[in-house]
Amino acid sequence: MRKGIFLAISLGLVAALAGGSAMAAGDAEIGAKVFKKRCKTCHTVKAGKHKLGPSLAGMFGSKSGATDFKKYKGLKGSDFVWNEENLDKFLANPKKFVGKKSMTFKLKKANERANVIEYLKTLK
Mean pLDDT across the stretch 17-22? Predict the structure, then answer.
């Protein structure tokens, strides 16, 4: 009987550890397709070239609000770095994450966010 309980607990622990990361790894190639479909209307990936929103070139790992896009006020004065965790929260619900209106669009599906984040990492 003890062996069965031990085995059940061990399997549960292994499953919890295997699925324990806060965010699943994404695919940059799929992320590029999601970006073209969902983000390209407002953002570019060319440095210094902006649309309704700022260029996203080189933004991964940078400080939030650090852009030369003069119209951009949504994250001015914010104090965080664009990493996987912050991007995931921001893309899921920008207003909730920032505490004020910044970007109105949301990526509700976790897999789409993970893929877009992986794509954003590739932009220099």
Answer: 41
DSSP string, 40-92: TTT--SSTT--SSS---TT-TTSBTT----TT--TTTT---B--HHHHHHHHH
Query: Which residue, among 56, 62, 68, has the nearest Cα to 103 in the 3D structure?
Result: 56
Beta bridge partners of 81: 63
Tell which residue, 106, 61, 52, has the closest CA to residue 86.
61
Considering the entire predicted model, what is its pTM? Answer: 0.78
Residue 33 three-state SS: helix
Phi, psi of 81, deg, nearest 5: -105, 145
Alpha-carbon gap, residue 93 to 65, rounded angstroms: 17
What pLDDT digit, counting tens, does each position of 60-116 carry? 999 998 888 877 677 877 889 999 999 999 999 999 998 888 888 999 999 999 999
User: 29: which 2 tokens?
Assistant: 């190639």
**Cα gap 109→104, rounded to integer Å:** 16
